[in-house]
Design goal:
Shape: globular
Strand content: 15-25%
Low-confidence stretches: 58-63
Radius of gyration: 20 Å
Mean pLDDT: 94
Distance between the termini: 58 Å
Helix content: 25-40%
Number of strands: 14
Structural class: alpha/beta
Number of helices: 15
Largest sheet: 10 strands, mixed
Length: 416
């Protein structure tokens, strides 16, 4: 494949009017969600696509002073200059080309992630095979891909305990096999939420995404976090995610003594970071993401190593339907990987229950694709068409222009 053009589109989906959420020590304002769409075109006119950029949660840590638009500019300048005119036989060939740009490591990793996914999309179209078939063939013990995948719902942000429980009930009604929520309303409220949600869920698993406990200005402290995680263990939660800062390996080890399964990895800067976290022996689940960990190639390497240990790979996904299906191809191809994260936003056309369980509006998450993913009773059917099996609605480039500024802000109470 001779690369003719590499482009990137920074897009924003406004939350209008902005939404305010009270948490322990302040108020969070939700303003928008940002997305980068990368398109790689060959000399014969074929193209591949990929979601790109930083995660919503890692933007502050790894892109301070930058934005999704900054990353799109890097793709359209340094990365395009390096890639255009190159002949790429396999997606991994692009990695060394991008590494020669001498960009900062974080940008190299983000760029490789996007190009790897887009080139797999292209390569699949070229040979007439879905990406999951290409990936499955790369594992030593090639097994038939699993293309009907269980989804767990990712929702729940800063509500009263009964609000989380009501949301969990709706999502179990929708057929999801798990419910992940984001606590942070205060230690007592968080423990009450654990009690209410676990009591509400019948067969649905419960996951807790706990980054608020350490990331915000008024963190809980080690003893308080240990106490909450121990409560989660007693109530049988499936996992507690990012209960301490990504590099706090001692904190992970300490919390593992509660017997609660721990998860983490989405904020790691590289596949090597994922593996280092796994090697602590403290986590049960590693959460890589093809958008952030060197694409399919990087995540497949991590999965291969996870299979030789007691750590399960569960991909992170908190963006658009395009990101959902990209990660789903990885899961479909990978032995001993089965769960897919499904973020629940307002007015989701695929969720038909008595009330809207969405976190906030993110219309671009749905509009980026022509058509819809095939989901029924909490199960996702991975597209069988060549490549990623998706068609992009390129009207989103004009419909969702980039909006400068942060996607979310935090206002803290002085009295806490």
């Amino acid at each position: 494949m001779r690369i003719a053009d590499v482009s990137a589109h920074a897009l924003s989906s406004p939350i209008n009017p902005p939404q305010d959420r009270s948490f322990h020590g302040g108020t969070r304002r939700l303003l928008k969600r940002d997305v980068v769409l990368v398109v790689v075109e060959t000399a014969d006119g074929a193209y591949g696509v990929a979601p790109a950029g930083a995660t919503s949660s890692s933007m502050r840590e790894y892109f301070e002073g930058d934005s999704q638009a900054t990353f799109a500019d890097v793709v359209e300048s340094d990365i395009a200059d390096a890639m255009e005119g190159e002949i790429i036989e396999t997606p991994v060939d692009a990695h060394s080309v991008i590494e020669r740009t001498r960009l900062p490591d974080r940008l190299v990793t983000r760029a490789i992630s996007a190009l790897d996914v887009a080139l797999y999309d292209l390569y699949g179209k070229e040979v007439g095979a879905p990406v999951y078939e290409l990936l499955a063939a790369e594992f030593e013990d090639t097994l038939a891909p699993t293309t009907n995948l269980p989804l767990y719902a990712s929702a729940g942000m800063y509500m009263e305990p009964e609000g989380y429980a009501s949301q969990a009930e709706l999502l179990e009604e929708a057929g999801f096999i798990g419910y992940k929520y984001r606590p942070g309303i205060g230690p007592d409220g968080d423990k009450e939420t654990i009690d209410r949600v676990t009591a509400t869920c019948n067969e649905m698993e419960v996951m807790i995404d706990a980054h608020t406990w350490w990331k915000l200005e008024h963190s809980y402290g080690d003893d308080v976090v240990f106490d909450i995680v121990r409560r989660a263990a007693e109530r049988g939660v499936c996992w507690v995610e990012e209960p301490v800062a990504p590099d706090n390996y001692e904190g992970y080890r300490s919390l593992s003594e509660t017997s609660a399964p721990l998860a983490g990895g989405e904020s790691e800067e590289s596949p090597e970071g994922l593996l280092a976290l796994g090697e602590t022996g403290a986590v049960s689940y590693l959460q890589g993401d093809v958008r952030h960990h060197r694409g399919f190639t990087g995540c497949s390497t991590v999965i291969t190593i996870c299979r030789k240990s007691n750590v399960e790979f569960v991909p992170h996904n908190f963006g658009t339907w395009l990101g959902l299906l990209a990660n789903a191809h990885l899961v479909a191809a990978s032995p001993e990987v089965e769960l897919v994260e499904y973020p629940v936003f307002e007015a989701d056309p695929l969720i038909n229950v008595s009330d809207d369980p969405g976190m906030y509006p993110f219309d671009l998450a749905f509009d980026i694709l022509e058509g819809r993913p095939s989901i029924e009773n909490g199960m996702l059917a991975v597209p069988e068409e060549p490549g990623l099996g998706v068609d992009i609605d390129f009207d989103v480039v004009e419909k969702y222009p980039f909006i400068e500024g942060p996607w979310t802000t935090f206002n803290y109470n002085e009295s806490v």
